[in-house]
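Milestone 3.1: sequence recovery, worked example.
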């Protein structure tokens, strides 16, 4: 299927609540004309029927293969402890006996709120000689059965793994034998679901070699989204040898462009490995009370310098405030450009430097819904610096919203509503002074494209009503409206991908 249609006309769409409907002409993937009653000669016509047209939505941080794999994994989320996880696995195995040697994967457990860490022995008691790999809800830890260790050729460890011990396993989950038809079906389903939410593109932070995997997928017809795959330090030499630069088109359809070098410099809140300036607030002792620094500043600077020297931007994972300080310093020392991924715990004195360096803050607002209780338990003395979206905006730092799927659902409307209201239940918003307006949240979800205008890509979304009516001023109502928006059609380069 071609990535775009040569001439498309969208008729009768509204660009503002107070404006009359207009037509939008798209040629060779870009908007070339906007106005009433445009000629239809040789155009593929889509009747807008008075729908609102907005720029296409992007997810700026997703692990797409892992998100797609959620349909193939056992749900062990919202569990109160290891015993509940093993009970769920027992029920699953009773209904779905596995073939010998086939790896069973589960997802969603979180140690935050548990009174102890899980052990390999208790998982073995339930699963026996079956290879089982259970992925934590923040993807920063794993819990394996003895059979899984043996299958992977690794020594059996007594308990769960996190960070540097876990990531080498996590990064190769896609290499485990699976039914190709099931994998394709899950990828296609995930793409269709994203398009149905108005998503036109994703920045894929998957561990796989996306610069080769994604062109193969688009050539095989998995072509509903634009994709910017990253590379990790382990693949940097190969990317340099291939001569690819950030922004280079990698496939014939023109849908896949090279993304950044991704570096994970610290851990996460729920695994209690985010690298912080002050210790976590806990009654029990942690081996690493301030979290873990996975990559030191000197090594990070060297990686970013090499990336910059070969035309790649950087995307640096920094959840703790100490990791943020080190990441900004490394960007400054290397001269590289790029983004801070997550930026969950801030230090305000770093913000002017981020703005001066032209860094982007790639944030995941839905995490604040999931992490609210954990944050209050583990970082109660620094709540005012968590998910500081307003502070970032006021400092002049561009925001890009994402999901970090599968950690949160690939749903830009959920991300926008979380950024606006900062609560998912009946509790009052936490840190309401750090909220975004609906318009700011939308702008941070459209890859920096502020409006439907001539010269912009023909990546558009038609919605049933205006996403943020001016009469709604209460954040709870604004967030509710964002979650209720109905996407009528999605276009990528003028080609209909949903609707």
């Amino acid at each position: 299927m071609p990535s775009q249609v040569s001439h498309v006309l969208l008729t009768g769409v509204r660009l503002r609540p107070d404006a009359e409907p207009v037509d939008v002409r798209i040629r060779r993937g870009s908007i070339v004309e906007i106005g009433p009653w445009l000629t239809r000669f040789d155009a593929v016509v889509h009747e807008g029927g008075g729908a609102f047209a907005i720029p296409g939505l992007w997810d700026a941080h997703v692990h797409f293969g892992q998100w797609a794999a959620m349909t193939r994994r056992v749900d062990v989320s919202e569990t109160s402890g290891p015993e509940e996880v093993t009970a769920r696995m027992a029920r699953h195995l009773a209904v779905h006996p596995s073939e010998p040697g086939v790896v069973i994967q589960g997802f969603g457990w979180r140690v935050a709120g548990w009174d102890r860490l899980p052990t390999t022995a208790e998982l073995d008691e339930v699963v026996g000689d079956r290879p089982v790999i259970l992925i934590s809800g923040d993807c920063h830890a794993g819990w394996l059965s003895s059979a899984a260790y043996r299958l992977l050729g690794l020594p059996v460890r007594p308990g769960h793994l996190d960070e540097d011990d876990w990531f080498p396993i996590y990064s190769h989950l896609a290499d485990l034998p699976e039914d190709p038809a099931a994998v394709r079906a899950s990828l296609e389903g995930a793409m269709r679901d994203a398009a149905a939410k108005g998503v036109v593109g994703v920045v894929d932070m998957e561990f796989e070699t996306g610069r080769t995997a994604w062109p193969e997928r688009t050539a095989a017809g998995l072509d509903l989204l634009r994709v910017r795959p990253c590379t990790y330090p382990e693949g940097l030499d190969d990317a340099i040898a291939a001569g690819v630069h950030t922004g280079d088109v990698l496939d014939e359809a023109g849908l896949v462009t090279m993304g950044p070098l991704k570096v994970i410099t610290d851990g996460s809140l729920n695994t209690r490995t985010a690298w912080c300036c002050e210790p976590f607030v806990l009654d029990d002792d942690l081996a690493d009370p301030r979290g873990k620094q996975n990559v030191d500043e000197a090594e990070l600077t060297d990686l970013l310098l090499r990336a910059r020297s070969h035309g790649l931007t950087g995307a640096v994972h920094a959840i703790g405030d100490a990791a943020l300080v080190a990441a900004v310093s490394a960007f400054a020392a290397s001269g590289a450009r790029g983004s801070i991924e997550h930026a969950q715990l801030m230090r305000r004195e770093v913000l002017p430097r981020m703005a001066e360096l032209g860094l982007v803050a790639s944030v995941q607002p839905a995490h604040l819904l999931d992490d609210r209780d954990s944050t209050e338990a583990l970082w109660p003395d620094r709540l005012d610096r968590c998910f500081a979206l307003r502070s970032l905006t006021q400092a002049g730092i561009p925001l890009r919203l994402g999901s970090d799927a599968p950690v949160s659902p690939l749903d830009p409307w959920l991300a926008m509503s979380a950024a606006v209201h900062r609560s998912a239940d009946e509790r009052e918003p936490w840190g309401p002074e750090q909220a975004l307006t609906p318009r700011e949240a939308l702008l941070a979800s459209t890859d920096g494209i502020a409006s439907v205008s001539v010269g912009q890509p023909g990546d558009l979304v038609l919605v049933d009503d205006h996403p943020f009516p001016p009469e709604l001023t209460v954040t709870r109502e604004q967030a509710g409206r964002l979650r209720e928006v109905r996407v009528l059609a999605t276009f990528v380069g003028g080609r209909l991908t949903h609707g």
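The mean pLDDT is 94. The chain is about 30% helix and 20% strand.
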